[in-house]
Amino acid sequence: MSRWEIIQQTYPTKLDLTEPETHHLPHTITESFAANIQGSRILFAKFGNEAIYSRGVGHMWKYKDGRETVEESHFKASFVDYGLVDKLDYHTGTAEFRGKEIKYDKKNHHWTYLNNRPVNFHTPSECNTPAEEDTVQVEELLETTERTIVAATQKLSLGRPSRPPTPQTGSIFGQTKPTTALPGSFPTTTRKGKQRQPSTGLVTGPSFSAADLSTPPVQTSSTPPLSAPVQVPTQQAPPPPPGGNPPPAQNTPTAVQRPAPIQQAPPLPPGGNPPPVPNPPAANMAAAPPCSIGSVPDAFDGNPVKAKSFWNALKNYYTLNDAVYVNEGQKVAAALTHFKMGTSAGDWASNRLATTLGATPITYGTWAEFKTKFKEQFIPPQTQVESIQKIHNLPMGNKEFNEWYQDWSMHARRANVDEQTWMYAFRKNLNQSLHQKIVQMSPQPNTMATLVQAARDLDKNWRMFAGPLRSGPQCPGIRALDNKPNPEINAFQGKPKK
Description:
Blueprint: H1 3-10, H2 19-24, E1 32-37, E2 40-47, E3 50-54, E4 62-63, H3 72-77, E5 86-89, E6 94-97, E7 100-105, E8 110-113, H4 131-158, E9 171-172, E10 175-176, H5 281-287, H6 304-320, H7 328-335, H8 344-358, H9 367-378, H10 381-392, H11 401-415, H12 419-429, H13 432-439, H14 448-466, H15 476-483, H16 487-491
Antiparallel strand pairs: 1-2, 2-3, 3-4, 5-6, 6-7, 7-8, 9-10
């Protein structure tokens, strides 16, 4: 029974924590309660496999058994990858990584950005876009769209009448020139003092006059203009007649010619220009940094029983993400962050980091050297010898096959022996009945996998059909058959005693 279970049984009356007391808890705590002890309110919490307590807000947390104060570094060590973050607040579970705010998900035991995207600590640069950058990009798009809509609305608010076959203009090169009626001509229909109203339903910007636009306004007249020469005083130009440019008038201070009409570009040949060739996907992918894949191994605490499994998971993770790291030194540096601080494994990793960072130049060595040092530290030779002894002296007995094989196969992997030795030790530890059934099989299993499967199937069938009957209701037909006397047995029995 763990210390936390003992605490729960010792104080059966459990009180809920108040809001200030909840804020007093470290963020990684998942189980807690309060209890009244001799008139004082004491807070209890489960911290790992230990039970800790506090006398309330403002008081330190202490271990229940040794009454030792829980240091701040112990609480921070309960966060995964806590050494890679800055400004860690173990009460709120918030920190910073590369200048961005992150929060700790204690349910799934990993860090996330404020937009709930997981933080990847083991890539040279983050592949995920934080929420703040997304917000800035959206705001820039909104501002650009708003400017475009305002500019388009301003042009629409001024309106443009349809052009006659021969356009007539009252401005030259963007400068407005008031027109002067020719002698004997009819007045035009243009009315002064009347402004066009913007169309309803559209957001309009500030109003502009026709002189402010780059495109000159079009003026129409109720009667076609005369073909007489155009005479304009200084800074004035009448509209030219539709029949072409007339000869220059006499005594004209300034003669203005109509600008040549804009020539339209000739049509494109059939098919048009070919579309631009898109960039190949490989070029786009090469520009983005690779992202890591797979699950990060759990932090290793130095237990020799778990050493082999931890190393296999660590090797598989960094084999999958080999393209993420520039060299083996980066892989070793990242691998040293998977050792749990406050344990023998964490101390070993910390010493290696201190030695490496104190050297000049800084080098973490190769992956092969790291593997050798790991095995020397956490997989001692006596572990292999003990496992060899176990695979020869761990009989199955009356256990179910799967229960026994799970324990036996763990020692078989640590023993690091050849397959023939495995098969011999496996047969030796089976119970006698199961071993005889396998001996009678034809053909005999010739690999460890087929031998294990045969033993598993035989054990399952025996327990299903030949094992003891389970308690429960039986079929009425079976009960009637069981109650029927057996004549062969009665024939060999004597007369019943009176």
